[in-house]
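Could someone model (2S)-2-hydroxybutanedioic acid with this protein?
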Amino acid sequence: MLEKLTAVPADPILGIIAAHAADTNPLKIDLGIGVYKDESGNTPILRSVKKAERILANRETTKTYLGPPGVPGFNSAITRLIYGDESSALREDRVRTIQTPGGTGALRVGADLINATRPGCKIWVSDPTWANHIPVFEAAGLDIQVYPYFDKESSSLRFDDMMMALEQPGPGDVVLFHACCHNPCGVSPEPEQWQAISDLATVRGFTPMVDMAYQGFERGLDEDALSVRLFAEKCPEVIVASSCSKNFAVYRERTGALSVVCTSTRNADDVVTVINSLTRQNYSMPPTHGPATVDIILHSEELSALWRQEVSDMRDRINGLRSKLVEKIAAAGIEKDFSFLERQSGMFSFMGLSVEQVRRLREEYSIYTVDSARVNIASFNAKNIDYFVEALKDVLEGA
Ligand code: LMR
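Reply:
Sure, complex below.
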């Protein structure tokens, strides 16, 4: 049976990890997958996470099953992190959150939930969106529709075009938004634009789904949840896929959450039974180590304060790198204006290179990016930034 199968191409983002690892050039740079790196090029375990893991190791007395919703303390703490303390949906007990294997797990369970209530439902995604959104949603049976988002010429948001396109979806349709640090383009709506988008959701009646994979990496933990909080105040139903991979740097621990705002407590109780049955059919129960660690951090004043500081340090370092890159590109005499990098946020931005220029960066300089020329800004450091700028100048000038 299996012999009928032929190989499929590697995932464009994951394929880069393997290609970079196999390269023996000491100057090689991996600008591909979105993981935070420090000045020495490492992805460290956060101090708050290390401390919480020690507490967990001493505290844990069993590894028995926990059940499909996962670690209860994690679910309640993440719920507060997502919606804040002032949420009327929380006060009215209309929110349910379950732990999932990473943010991708949340997206898939969320998509399964949508398909369970409305098979083949239309889901509108931004152009562009994270390379894995479409495969995940298609695998769940959803019908992908696209709305304009990023203007390549100005490297900015096509706000008016987006708003016009979002006049089309209505009740029974879902629209996916990135809460902050848009992946792949780094461009987010301004706070007043989120107000207008959430107003439009109420007028049109579509269901907002929000992917919040980088909470804390754009403006701050509360600021980055603005879109979710506005939708939760204004719309009867909201679906949120949240990830701790980046802001707790627990990538491989697969720590995420699916949260739903429902129209009533009773409906929320019913919906969570459907979610639990969907996860049971799929992976049965989520892993515990990452969420139990996050639970300890978010329930300790001291560890929470340390973690908040670590998140803001990561954000500041990325923003500093954005400014440094713009400065160095200008100083190198590159004609093209890259000042947009400083107006964008999070790990990613598009460098606006052709596939041929991306290929040259890879083959001639061992600099690895996905074909779209999306780069992970967090990968730059004092040792590699000049080498990158030099290579960029060469490929841009066709040298
Ligand atoms: C990325 O876009 O690089 C990250 O979200 C990691 C991934 O799984 O693709």
